[in-house]
Amino acid sequence: MPKPIHLVFSNLKGETVERGPFRSFCLQGETLRETIGGPTFAVHEDHSWHVDGRVFSRVDCDCRVIITLSRVDGKLSKKYGPFDSFSCLDGIAYVDHAVFAFADRAIGDWYCHADGMHWAIVQVDSSD
User: Is pLDDT above 80 for 128?
Assistant: First the structure.
């Protein structure tokens, strides 16, 4: 059984807030959701994550993950990973401390460095 995912939002003041546990989560545009089309629990705007009226600079995942990207028409990428870490800072998604994808605000999707393609959704699943 996969380890539950806990997301930790943090800022430069040392404040943190945790969300989870989740079996998976997704970045749909610059929103974080547990499931595609599900309720939003964090929004990235003005270079920060907004969670329950509080502002955070980054979000980190506490377990190994596998990533799949998808398009609106349902097309899926190959599976990437597993990775030991996942984080987002200023619209950039990192895996194992390397850039994986970035939010392309002009289009409203994610540009994946691994395949050089644009994707609507970044799906992150626990691999533990």
Answer: no
One-letter amino acid of 25: F
Integer Cα distance of 30 and 50 in angstroms:
11
pLDDT in tens, 12-61: 999 999 999 999 999 999 999 999 999 999 999 999 999 999 999 999 99
If we measure between CA atoms, which residue out of 91, 97, 86 comes closest to residue 57?
A: 91
In angstroms, rounded to a whole number, what is the distance separating the alpha carbons of residues 55 and 84?
26
**Identity of the amino acid at 15:** E
Contact assessment for residue 68 and residue 82, using Cβ atoms and an 8 Å cutoff: no
Beta strand residue intervals within the chain, DSSP E: 5-10, 16-22, 24-28, 31-33, 40-45, 48-51, 54-56, 58-61, 65-70, 80-83, 86-89, 92-95, 98-104, 109-112, 117-119, 121-126
